[in-house]
Amino acid sequence: MSYLEEGFTLRSWLTTRDHKRIGILYALAITVFFFLGGAAAAIIRLELLTPQGDLVSADTYNKLFTIHGVVMVWFFLIPSIPSTLGNFLLPMMIGAREVAFPRLNIISWYIYVLGATFTVGAVIAGGVDTGWTFYTPLSTLFSNTHVVAAVMGVFIVGFSSILTGLNFIVTVHRMRAPGMTWFRMPLFVWANYATSLILVLATPVLAMTLVLLATERLLHVGIFDPALGGDPLLFQHLFWFYSHPAVYIMVLPAMGVASEIITCFARKRIFGYKFMCYAILGIAGFGFLVWGHHMFVSGQSAYAGMVFSMLSFMVAVPSAIKVFNWTATLYKGSIEFTAPMLYALGFVGLFTIGGMTGLYLAAIALDVHLTDTYFVIAHFHYIMVGGSVMAYLGGIHFWWPKITGRLYSEAWGRVGAITIFAGFNLTFFPQYLLGFLGMPRRYHSYPPEFQLLNILSSAGAAVLAVGYLLPLIYLGWSLFLGKRASPNPWHARGLEWKTASPPPKENFHETPEVDAVPYAYNPEEKLA
Amino acid sequence: MSASSREIDAGGRGEPDRHARGDVDPRAWREETASLGMWVFLATELMFFGGLFLAYLYLRTHDPEGVAAASTHTHEWLGTINTAILLTSSFAMALAVHAAKDARRKAAQRLLVVTAAFGLAFLVVKGIEYGMEWRDGLVPGLRFTLAENTRTATLFFFLYFVATGIHAVHLAIGVATVLWIAWRLRAAALPGWRVDEIDVLGLYWHFVDAVWIFLYPLFYLVNLNA
Hints:
A: 68% helix; B: two-stranded antiparallel ribbon; 77% helix
């Protein structure tokens, strides 16, 4: 009997402690938010079709990009891979039957829902216009919108992240199957472990920052407000101390997904496995030391700027190690261009472009020109959407047969992947050019000479929207009419493929014993 | 689901894999797992208070004299009494953990009640102190009447109330949990898996105590010569 057949009532889902069901609950919740944030983005791109601000007012525009940012960062991207695929797969990949604290796991989902109600409430009540960064003193003194409700939403959802991270860390330390040593763990587990460390250590700093912000706004006392003796730079330091590592919360799990998919469909053991592990930890570590590069033009000390610039360049080293190792894995592999593989290859290419343009922004002199332009928007969307969302969708396709027990239509899967890749580039590449030409972000009108590139970008957004709706349709269809999946349709090597599709509630009827390196795709490499 | 695994689930922790860990004592496994979970949580808590300490550091480095002057308005005697109360509560908690490990249920229960009583005493003293500060007009944003050195003093008391307030919330959660566990120890023999709950609760209690050990000098002892 599979975990899906353990109970069919709503109650059996809402009171579950099964990490697989909790993963699905998270997937449903974040999908709702993905389309909410996407709808805001769609109106933004419609407005930017023409240079005049004619569709929405400047105030509404500010609220749209704020809600887009808040929803996409905290209610979609941060929980996306760890809380859905991570929850479902991490215990299975290390041969465990549960996470370490199943009750905390379902509590974390309810905390997410509670935070979500605050955020939705803020939107319904009229929205927030501060941008997702809640910069002071705009957010504490000048904004007349529902800042406190939005901040509460983000504050609360942070605790669901912390609980998920805590659960993963303890699970990886304590629940591994016999023989599953640290260097036999799949890279997806490594990536989620490193992500969990960031979740546990960075999120509380944001929580305290938001407490101070909300108190300041409610009581009109200012630790961040210069008029009252405070310092807005203090807010920026505290905010980015969380929010830069948060970028790695969003991209490290994506790297884990890409590693699993590429090695499987190249039919080759991943190149430089141990270096991949160290690179993951390196990125997580360096990620804590580079927040100041968001503040080059804020008036922080020039020496601090130089140090942050240098450290930001250093993050590129472990990132490049990963890109080269994925490439080397493909070299002389027997590559199969399945839908997940297309997503994974798309991830590598778009992540590389996003990462390289990050180096432009890490160079202080160039950053002065590019700060607050569309170049920055394009850069982080290449990482967050081109990187994380592509990998998330790739992972959903790759593990779909395991999660649902059904096969999706491979042809439609490929069409979807290619549509998203094309639509994505059409949307965001013109924004690099716009930013380089000097178009500032966060305005609802712009000089007419930027119109052509903006039309291209909006057209791309339409293609992208179709691309995102496609999987919803054919994956939904496969749930009812798709062919039954065998336990291991991709002939992959991970432990999660050694049990039924969909897996039984206890994951494995017999606890697996591990005696080999991961990704033993070449038979002669079975033992290390 | 077998009866024994349901029992373990009721504790909220995953089933230690008996097939895999036939050689490991499940009770010891659970205790270590729960303790690791609490340590990770305390790491989170440490970073949570860390943001606050950074804000304090900022204020203190920008206007050391102002902070010193503002701190003379805190009631250092009440702070000192509270420090003693909290340290004593931690002593009782340490003894409670010890008693639980020796399976002395009655003693553990009594010591937990003593711990909670000291925690409650701390909160009462803190409440009286807040009342005095309200009377003296030291509450930024609501009732602040300090005439000299207003800016730094406002920020000082802003941080004071946020820091001690969040600390008090942590302590209140601690008191409630300690009482709840003591209540559950009232009749039944102490089952093995509750020992780790008391152990883990002890870690939390000592952490809350340790945070106060830092707050006490930062807010009360900056300038005793004035």
